[in-house]
């Protein structure tokens, strides 16, 4: 999703469902298309943005963990090499 473009209507509802977001939670209003009741666009936009932010943070946490493990292995290797070099 582009940073400046917030989804609306059916696109927003589809993205929310893809992310596993409750589209019928409070506050409930009639959708713009009038087909069924669901949270209004601004509420769904907030939920979608929050879910996407959470997904990004989860991936960044994993990346930080892998980086930390690589640093420990690198440090241990350096200590071993220096220890055997004497």
Architecture overview:
The protein is mainly α and 86 residues long. It has one domain. Helices cover 64% and strands 7% of the residues. α1 (9-18) crosses α2. The longest helix is centred in the last third of the chain and has 45 residues, at 41-85. The chain is rod-shaped and about 75 Å long. It starts with 8 loop residues before the first helix and ends with a helix. The mean pLDDT is 83.
Instruction: Provide a count of the helices.
Output: 2
The largest beta-sheet arranges its strands as 1-2
Describe the global form: rod-shaped
Q: Which range does the strand content fall in? A: 5-15%
Number of strands: 2
Structural class: mainly alpha
Largest sheet: 2 strands, antiparallel
Q: Ranges with pLDDT <50 over ≥5 residues?
A: none
Q: Roughly what percent helix?
A: 55-70%
Mean pLDDT: 83
Order of helices and strands: HEEH
Distance between the termini: 56 Å
CA radius of gyration: 23 Å
| Number of self-contained structural domains | 1
Pick out its properties.
86 residues; rod-shaped; 64% helix; mainly alpha; two-stranded antiparallel sheet
Which secondary structure elements does this structure contain, and how are they paired or packed?
Elements: H1 9-18, E1 28-30, E2 37-39, H2 41-85
Antiparallel strand pairs: 1-2
Helix pairs in contact: 1-2
Short synopsis of the structure:
By secondary structure, the protein is mostly helical. It has helices at residues 9-18, 41-85, and strands spanning 28-30, 37-39.
